[in-house]
Each structure stands twice: as structure tokens, then as C-alpha cells.
């Protein structure tokens, strides 16, 4: 490999990391904005089902306009299956499980569970790209999972009167993490061929026959607060659409295993934004466990990984 090629690769990785940071900064507001949109179990606003399907339907209609302007480069063959898999994770799985979970727990609490997302994404990417993380990498993954489980049990034990609702909500949030990581990696595999913008746009357009009728059927029958519509608008325009323009391109340029680790900052940004937006309190237990989970991800990133697997 020539010096110029090495320079280009290094430049691509750096650009990919910065695009990943931009995507994470956009995604970090997803938790508090979803909480604004759905409300709480005591004061519900928009239903989690409408938030899930409505945000995808709105982003899908914007995607139709974008593809009409940029050109309808159609996916081919097996690419349709990867798009379908990406849609299952990012259009349905992640937003639905997240919205259902945020009806029961605060956004600060959910941010700790979301702290596992970079590590889980790295594990899925290593398997998909046939890379071999070291024993230390897997040890950090297990430790991070254990920390999240202990945190969830502590919080559930402190709210026994609520019937351990947080336990079920934490399970939903873990499913949201798994859905997102699978959708991220499958979308990143298509980005070098279709481009980041076309990947998310085609995912949303092919989902429209399902998401648009579902959004109309679950639309609110009575008025909700303006803040709920504000939260819904954000997750539709930014979390479901524009954020993926930067995120998928960053994953493709820098490599999913590496770029996924910039999500280290996402729990902090989510926690910090939930305080002014929702008036939530950042307690020492949540902050401590959040830092511990992020530390395991940082250690997992530093663990050696054999990247001589399948080519990009």
C-alpha cells in the first residue's frame, strides 16, 4: 500500500470519527425528546405506538422528496434484504422499545442502559465483519452488562410499590439497544454502495406502506401538549432522518467497530440534556453507574482486535 493510500485511509477514519460524533450528538437528544413526546405513565401524551410509526412516516415522506431530488438509485438483489433488516432495527425495534420503556422510567435512567449501545454495536460489527475481539474485549462486554443489570435491580428494588415496573422497562430498553446495534451495522454495510443518505431514505420509503397506515390508526384522538409535538418533531426530523446521514457515513468511513465507540459520549449528553428539558435530577447512583459502564466500553475499545477478517 502506498503512502498516499495510507494517508487517505487515515483521513477517512478521522472523518468517520467526526461524522460519528455529529450523529451521536443528534441521537443524544432522542431520549429526552421521546420522553417529552410520550409523557409519563401518570401524565401520558402521544402514544408510544404513534411516536414510533409517526416519526418513521414523516421521515419517510421527507425521504421520498429527497430521493426524487437526488435521484432514485435503486438497491439491487441482496441489498433489499439488508434494507429490510435495517428497517426492522432502526424504524420499528429501537424507537418502539425505547418509547415503551420511557413511559416507565426517566430519561436519565434510560441513559445508563443506552450506555451499552457502543459495546454491543462493536460486538455485532466484529461478528458481521468477521473480526476477532480479544478476551479482554469480551470481558469488558460481560462486565458492562453486569453493571447495567445491578443498576436495574437496585432501581427496581427502590420502587417495589410500583410493582417492579422498572424491571420490565429495563428489558425493553435492552431490546432497544439490540435493535439499534443490528440496524446500525446492517446499514453501514450498505453505505459504501448506496451512500448514507440513500440507505436511510430507502429504509424509510420501503417502510411507508406499513408506517403510514399505522401512524394514522394510532394518531391522538385528543389534544396533547405542545411540548409533546416538539419532541415528536425532533425525533422524526433529526433522530429518524438527518442523524443517520452523518452516522451511517461515519460508520462506513471509520469502520463500525471503531466509530461505534464515539457513542461513549451519548449517555452523558442524554443525561445532561434531560435535566433542563425535563427537569429530571441527576443522582449520584445514576451518574456513578453511567461512568462505570462508559469505563468498560473505553477498556473494551483499547483491547486488541484482529481486523484481518472480511474486507469492507
From TrEMBL:
<feature type="transmembrane region" description="Helical">
    <location>
        <begin position="199"/>
        <end position="221"/>
    </location>
</feature>
<dbReference type="InterPro" id="IPR050638">
    <property type="entry name" value="AA-Vitamin_Transporters"/>
</dbReference>
<feature type="transmembrane region" description="Helical">
    <location>
        <begin position="227"/>
        <end position="247"/>
    </location>
</feature>
<feature type="domain" description="EamA">
    <location>
        <begin position="168"/>
        <end position="299"/>
    </location>
</feature>
<feature type="transmembrane region" description="Helical">
    <location>
        <begin position="49"/>
        <end position="69"/>
    </location>
</feature>
<keyword id="KW-0812">Transmembrane</keyword>
<feature type="transmembrane region" description="Helical">
    <location>
        <begin position="108"/>
        <end position="128"/>
    </location>
</feature>
<feature type="domain" description="EamA">
    <location>
        <begin position="15"/>
        <end position="144"/>
    </location>
</feature>
<keyword id="KW-1133">Transmembrane helix</keyword>
<keyword id="KW-0472">Membrane</keyword>
<dbReference type="Pfam" id="PF00892">
    <property type="entry name" value="EamA"/>
</dbReference>
<dbReference type="InterPro" id="IPR000620">
    <property type="entry name" value="EamA_dom"/>
</dbReference>
<feature type="transmembrane region" description="Helical">
    <location>
        <begin position="135"/>
        <end position="154"/>
    </location>
</feature>
<feature type="transmembrane region" description="Helical">
    <location>
        <begin position="16"/>
        <end position="37"/>
    </location>
</feature>
<feature type="transmembrane region" description="Helical">
    <location>
        <begin position="166"/>
        <end position="187"/>
    </location>
</feature>
<dbReference type="InterPro" id="IPR037185">
    <property type="entry name" value="EmrE-like"/>
</dbReference>
<comment type="similarity">
    <text>Belongs to the EamA transporter family.</text>
</comment>
<protein>
    <submittedName>
        <fullName>DMT family transporter</fullName>
    </submittedName>
</protein>
<feature type="transmembrane region" description="Helical">
    <location>
        <begin position="81"/>
        <end position="102"/>
    </location>
</feature>
Amino acid at each position: 500500500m502506498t503512502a498516499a493510500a495510507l494517508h487517505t485511509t487515515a483521513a477517512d477514519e478521522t472523518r468517520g470519527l467526526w461524522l460519528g460524533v455529529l450523529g451521536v450528538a443528534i441521537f443524544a437528544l432522542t431520549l429526552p425528546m421521546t420522553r417529552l413526546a410520550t409523557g409519563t405513565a401518570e401524565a401520558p401524551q402521544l402514544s408510544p405506538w404513534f411516536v414510533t410509526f409517526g416519526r418513521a412516516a414523516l421521515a419517510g415522506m421527507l425521504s421520498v422528496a429527497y430521493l426524487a431530488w437526488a435521484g432514485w438509485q435503486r438497491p439491487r438483489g441482496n441489498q433489499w434484504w439488508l434494507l429490510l433488516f435495517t428497517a426492522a432495527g432502526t424504524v420499528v425495534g429501537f424507537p418502539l422499545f425505547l418509547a415503551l420503556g420511557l413511559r416507565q422510567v426517566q430519561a436519565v435512567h434510560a441513559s445508563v442502559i443506552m450506555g451499552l449501545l457502543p459495546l454491543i454495536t462493536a460486538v455485532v460489527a466484529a461478528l458481521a465483519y468477521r473480526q476477532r475481539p480479544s478476551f479482554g474485549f469480551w470481558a469488558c462486554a460481560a462486565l458492562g452488562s453486569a453493571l447495567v443489570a445491578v443498576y436495574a435491580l437496585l432501581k427496581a428494588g427502590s420502587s417495589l410499590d410500583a410493582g417492579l415496573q422498572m424491571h420490565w422497562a429495563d428489558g425493553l430498553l435492552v431490546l432497544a439497544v439490540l435493535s439499534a446495534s443490528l440496524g446500525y451495522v446492517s446499514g453501514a454495510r450498505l453505505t459504501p454502495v448506496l451512500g448514507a443518505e440513500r440507505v436511510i431514505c430507502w429504509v424509510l420509503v420501503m417502510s411507508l406502506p406499513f408506517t403510514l397506515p399505522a401512524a394514522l390508526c394510532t394518531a391522538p384522538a385528543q389534544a396533547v401538549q405542545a411540548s409533546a409535538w416538539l419532541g415528536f418533531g425532533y425525533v422524526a426530523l433529526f433522530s429518524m432522518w438527518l442523524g443517520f446521514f452523518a452516522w451511517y457515513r461515519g460508520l462506513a468511513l471509520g469502520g463500525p467497530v471503531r466509530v461505534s465507540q464515539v457513542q461513549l459520549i451519548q449517555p452523558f449528553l442524554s443525561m445532561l440534556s434531560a435535566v433542563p428539558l425535563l427537569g429530571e435530577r441527576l443522582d449520584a447512583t445514576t451518574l456513578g453507574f453511567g461512568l462505570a459502564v462508559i469505563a468498560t466500553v473505553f477498556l473494551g475499545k483499547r483491547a486488541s482486535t484482529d481486523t484481518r477478517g472480511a474486507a469492507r
